[in-house]
Design goal:
With 234 residues, the chain is an alpha/beta fold. It contains 8 helices and 9 strands. A hairpin with an 8-residue loop joins β8 and β9. The relative contact order is 0.21. One of its GO terms (biological process) is establishment of competence for transformation.
């Protein structure tokens, strides 16, 4: 089941084309990576797909329900989300718990079920032992993992991730890729992840969407490289 389906999306900065006629989809149960050279408008494509910025043209369809017939939940993790300074007042637990509020409503009490989600999310990124520390006291890589744990605590159906492993070491990155593969294949989640580590993640991902510069384009205009996409698709 397609959770997100994009057809012929084009985006312009002022009068200059950046993305042209890009089409792709992401379905439940698959882990898809999005790659391209620096400046290939990968983040722009994701933001346009989610309606954060308005594309010039194109059709974007996001499912209303998940595979269980319940309201589809989307979690978007932008670049460098974990830039908390040393004075950030929240503890790790408080920050991750906040990921449960949109599900329960802002004024509903946090339950034991919610706390179980929080603990599972923190353990999944190897940060349960840091549960009572202040967010501002953590390293950059630790903050990034806590931001990911908050996302997991919200229990989304569709994960949209923009370079989520920034600041992680090799072991942490590999474990994260394994975790996303598990979420897709065992729990029916859909994952779209922007990454520069295409070689490292290809053992875990199902498909790769590659943005390539259009031939004979004076401006840096990108579109989906169909040949590359077919070659990497399992």
């Amino acid at each position: 089941m397609n959770y997100i389906n994009v057809k012929n999306l084009s985006f312009f900065y002022d009068a200059e084309p950046v993305l042209e006629n890009v089409s792709y989809s992401v379905s439940s149960g698959e882990f898809v990576t999005l790659t391209g050279e620096n400046g290939a408008a990968k983040s722009t494509l994701v933001k346009a797909s989610l309606g954060i910025i308005k594309p010039k043209t194109g059709e974007i369809s996001i499912a209303k329900e998940n595979i269980k017939g319940k309201k589809l939940r989307i979690s978007y993790l932008p670049q460098q989300i974990a830039s908390f300074n040393a004075g950030f007042p929240s503890t790790v637990k408080e920050f991750v718990i906040s990921g449960r509020y949109p599900r329960n409503g802002w004024f509903k009490r946090i339950t034991a079920h919610d706390m179980a989600h929080v603990e599972t999310a923190l353990r999944s990124v190897g940060m349960w032992e840091q549960v009572d520390r202040r967010m501002g006291a953590l390293s950059g890589g630790q903050k990034q993992r806590i931001a990911i744990a908050r996302m997991f605590a919200s229990d989304p159906d569709l994960f949209i991730l923009d370079e989520p492993t920034t600041g992680m070491d090799d072991v942490s990155r590999s474990e994260f890729y394994r975790l996303m593969h598990h979420a897709a294949h065992k729990h029916g989640k859909a994952v779209l992840m922007i990454t520069h580590d295409a070689d490292d993640v290809k053992a875990f991902a199902d498909r790769n969407i590659h943005l390539a510069r259009k031939e004979n384009s004076a401006w840096r205009c990108f579109s989906v490289h169909e040949k590359r996409q077919e070659e990497t698709e399992k």
